[in-house]
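lol forgot to send this yesterday, sorry. C-alpha cells for the thing we talked abt
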C-alpha cells in the first residue's frame, strides 16, 4: 500500500521552529508518512492568499493526500477547527475561509468539527493549534482513522467573499488577486471566461496606466523589461514583465483593476 501523504501550508515561515514541530508531532503518531511542504511563506494572517495557493496546488497531489492549511489569525479563539473531505482529498484547517477556493472547485462530501480530544495532543496551546490540534489529527487520519471520528458533522462553515470578473458590454472587468514570488500579477480572470468573451478575437488589457496589446504565450515572447499579459500555469490571466517583477515596475498589487477590451 502506498505511503500516506500529508502536505503542509502555513504562514509560519521557515526561520522558527514551528513547521519542524508540526512535522515532529505527525511523525510521533505516524512514522510511515511522506511530508510535503506546500508553502510556509503565505503572508502572515493572509487567509485569502492561503486559500488561493491551496486551491492552485491540491489537485496535483495523489488521491487521498491530507492537507493541513494553517493561516490562523483567530488561533486560540472560539473559531472552530475543521476536517473535510473533497474531491478524494482530506483537509484540516481553521474555520476562517481558508478552504473557500477548494470548496468552490470541489464541493465537500463531508465536513466535521474537530473536537475529539484523543486525536489532539494532551495539552493544546492557545497560540499553536497547528502543532497541537491540526498536526495530530492529520497524523491520525494517515493511520486510517475515519474523518467522522474526529468530531460532529457540520452543514455550514465560513466562506470568504470571492469577487468574480464581470462582463460589461465589450469588456471584462477583473482584478489582481495574487502577486506571486516573481512579482507577476495574477488575476481572477480564468481561461474559460476569457475564451467565451474573446471568441478568438484580438483584445487589449488595461491595468493602472498600462495598456497591453494582446496575449502572449510565454514571457520570452516580448523583449526583456516589456510588460505583457499571458495565462499562468493555474489557468488565470496574469500581467508580467519579462525578466522583472510587474508589481514593482508597475506599482500595482492585489485589488488592482484589470480591464480586458475587444479590439
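and heres what i got for the seq, position by position
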Amino acid at each position: 500500500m502506498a505511503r500516506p501523504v500529508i502536505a503542509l501550508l502555513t504562514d509560519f515561515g521557515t526561520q522558527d521552529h514551528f513547521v519542524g514541530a508540526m512535522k515532529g508531532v505527525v511523525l510521533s503518531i505516524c512514522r510511515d508518512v511522506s511530508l510535503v511542504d506546500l508553502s510556509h511563506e503565505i503572508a502572515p494572517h493572509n487567509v485569502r492568499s492561503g486559500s488561493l495557493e491551496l486551491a492552485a496546488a491540491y489537485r496535483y497531489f495523489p488521491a487521498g493526500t491530507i492537507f493541513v492549511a494553517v493561516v490562523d489569525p483567530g488561533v486560540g479563539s472560539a473559531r472552530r477547527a475543521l476536517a473535510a473531505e473533497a474531491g478524494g482529498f482530506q483537509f484540516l484547517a481553521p474555520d476562517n475561509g481558508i478552504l473557500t477556493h477548494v470548496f468552490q472547485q470541489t464541493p465537500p462530501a463531508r465536513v466535521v468539527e474537530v473536537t475529539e480530544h484523543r486525536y489532539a495532543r494532551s495539552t493544546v496551546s492557545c497560540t499553536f493549534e497547528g502543532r497541537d490540534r491540526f498536526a495530530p489529527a492529520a497524523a491520525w487520519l494517515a493511520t486510517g482513522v475515519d474523518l467522522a471520528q474526529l468530531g460532529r458533522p457540520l452543514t455550514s462553515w465560513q466562506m470568504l467573499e470571492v469577487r468574480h470578473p464581470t462582463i460589461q458590454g465589450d469588456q471584462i472587468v477583473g482584478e489582481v488577486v495574487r502577486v506571486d514570488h516573481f512579482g507577476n500579477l495574477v488575476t481572477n480572470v480564468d481561461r474559460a471566461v476569457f475564451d467565451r468573451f474573446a471568441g478568438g478575437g484580438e483584445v487589449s488589457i488595461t491595468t493602472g496606466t498600462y495598456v497591453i496589446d494582446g496575449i502572449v504565450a510565454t514571457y520570452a515572447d516580448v523583449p526583456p523589461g516589456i510588460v505583457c499579459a499571458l495565462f499562468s500555469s493555474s489557468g488565470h490571466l496574469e500581467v508580467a514583465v519579462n525578466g522583472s517583477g510587474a508589481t514593482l515596475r508597475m506599482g500595482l498589487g492585489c485589488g488592482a483593476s484589470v480591464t480586458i477590451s475587444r479590439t
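The radius of gyration is 20 Å. anyway ping me if u want another try
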